[in-house]
Write a structure and sequence with these properties.
Mean pLDDT: 93
Radius of gyration: 17 Å
Shape: globular
Helix content: 25-40%
Order of helices and strands: EHHEHEEHEHEEEEHHEHE
Strand order of the largest sheet: 4-3-5-2-1-6-10-11-9
Low-confidence stretches: none
Oligomer: single chain
Strand content: 15-25%
Distance between the termini: 27 Å
Length: about 240
């Protein structure tokens, strides 16, 4: 593999990314577009794990009057719906894919087993990790960090609707400053909205770089993998 910076990656997609302009549910044209980018990486020999959020369907904090644990479990199920949709989009392109869930649902997906996930990756299959960590009170950011550590990923690619990390919301403030590089402690100390503090700390403890970039431009995932200077890199320093 020429000009490839990362051989094994964890791709973190927000649920909202799958919703596209609709803002809710799944836009299958968007899912197909993401699947095509992933296929290109697979064809290059990149090993890919993925975590998809569930915010396009349900977030735990949506259930304001609900028991928090119940609301969070509903969010985990939402991530499974998104994972199956992404799996279908990939398999339509001929990409071998497995969904592994932290909550057992053997009729639709495999249970998460680290050694099996590693074997799938070694065989060139994309592994989508669904249902979060299987525990309430933990976000899909934390899932991405945890699974990245478990599969020994070289980096987390955090695909968002913005093209990097800013000191304030660039959609609201025209003078928002974009960062090209940050340390984990910068993110924690400044309270920057990269990943939640648990996920950031996990990445810091395991020295896993986080590359934050936008999904607005075609082939951004490929650019990130090949080491092109896009987005914001969060690392040890």
């Amino acid at each position: 593999m020429k000009n490839v910076k990362y051989k094994r990656i964890m791709l973190k997609l927000s649920g909202e990314a799958l919703a596209g302009e609709k803002g809710y549910g799944i836009d299958f044209e968007v899912a197909q577009s993401i699947a095509k980018e992933i296929k290109e990486l697979v064809d290059m020999g990149i090993e890919i794990g993925a975590v998809v959020g569930g915010g396009n369907i349900w977030r735990g904090r949506n259930g304001e009057e609900m028991d928090r644990t119940t609301a969070d479990y509903m969010g985990m199920l939402a991530t499974c719906i998104n994972a199956l949709a992404l799996q279908d989009s990939l398999e339509q392109l001929g990409v071998n894919t497995r969904v592994q869930t932290a909550i057992e649902m053997r009729e639709v997906a495999e249970p998460f087993i680290r050694r099996r996930a590693m074997r799938h990756l070694e065989k060139g299959r994309v592994v989508i990790f669904a249902a979060g960590t299987g525990n309430p009170y933990f976000s899909t950011d934390t899932t991405a960090a945890l699974r990245a550590a478990e599969i020994e990923a070289d980096a987390i690619l955090l695909a968002k609707k913005v093209d990097g990390v800013y000191d304030k919301d660039p959609h609201k403030y025209s003078d928002a400053k974009k960062f090209d590089k940050l340390t984990y402690l910068d993110v924690l100390d400044k309270g920057l909205q990269v990943m939640d503090s648990t996920a950031t700390s996990l990445c810091m403890d395991n020295n896993i770089p986080i590359l934050v970039f936008g999904l607005d431009s075609p082939e951004n995932i490929k650019r990130a993998v090949t080491g092109e200077a896009i987005g914001t890199i969060v690392c040890k320093g």
